[in-house]
Design goal:
This protein is an alpha/beta fold. The protein is built from 8 helices and 12 strands. It folds into 2 domains: 144 residues, NAD(P)-binding Rossmann-like Domain (Rossmann fold), CATH 3.40.50; 105 residues, Dihydrodipicolinate Reductase, domain 2, CATH 3.30.360.10. It binds nicotinamide-adenine-dinucleotide.
Length: 259
Amino acid sequence: MKVAVTGAAGRMGRLIVKKVVEDEQLELVQAFDVVQTGKDAGEVAGIGRIGVEIQSDIKKLDADILIDFTTAEAAVKNTQVAAERGVKLVVGTTGFNDSQKKELEENCRRVPSVVSPNFSIGVNVFWKIIEFAASYLHECDVEVVEIHHRKKKDSPSGTAIKAAEIVKNVLEARKRIVELKFCREGLSPRGEEIGVFGIRGGDVVGEHTVYFFGEGERIEIIHRALSRECFASGAILAAKWLAAVDQPGIYSMNDVLGF
Ligand code: NAD
């Protein structure tokens, strides 16, 4: 599998470059970013020279698969070029607004794609645990709180929004209609809602807590990412899983992990 990476100079992209180079089934053929262009992607990733230069023009994309960890705006454009060329996609970027999400999905549907706001295996198990808990604790008040490093651009995180949506879907199946609430200020009595809040500071890789508040008791389900390795490993797993998939469409880590 010939792999291209977009966002190759970023925190996630550098790790992906390293993992693709280390993998025997994958070959890094292209690296894209809008910074550090002209530099060797391996040197930027801290693994020494690999002979793949970081370039900025995505129209030069020529690979079997593109792994994208960039920004919402960039990911929409990158996936459009990939879809036009029949390049399979692994998309980890988050922070899409509604119209970007629609465009992204239209692009990704045209080729075999794995799209996930969180590629960590632990987080995907965490989402399953939340689904299970919500089905038994459907009368509880549920709130989601996430903590990330000070440089994270979007808030709340895609992982937190997905956790809240999982609970929302379970409650709605039981005829309890709730809204996601991203902000409380001033007079804001709790309604039929799931609060989703982001805290930012320091170098926290990612921490998500889902609270189920009952009468006289509380359950907290927590996932803590201690390094970005878990996201990168999951993305690589998804890329290798896609090698055997020819049917275009958007797949999730549930499919990759066989849940
Ligand atoms: P980062 O800011 O360190 O890296 C993003 C990189 O994308 C930067 O180097 C930037 O220059 C580059 N970029 C911007 N526009 C581009 C374009 N048009 N073409 C190519 N490259 C471009 O951010 P990060 O921490 O690596 O995170 C990247 C994204 O991945 C964010 O949306 C983040 O929320 C998400 N993320 C997802 C997961 C997951 O498991 N799905 C895990 C961690 C981060």
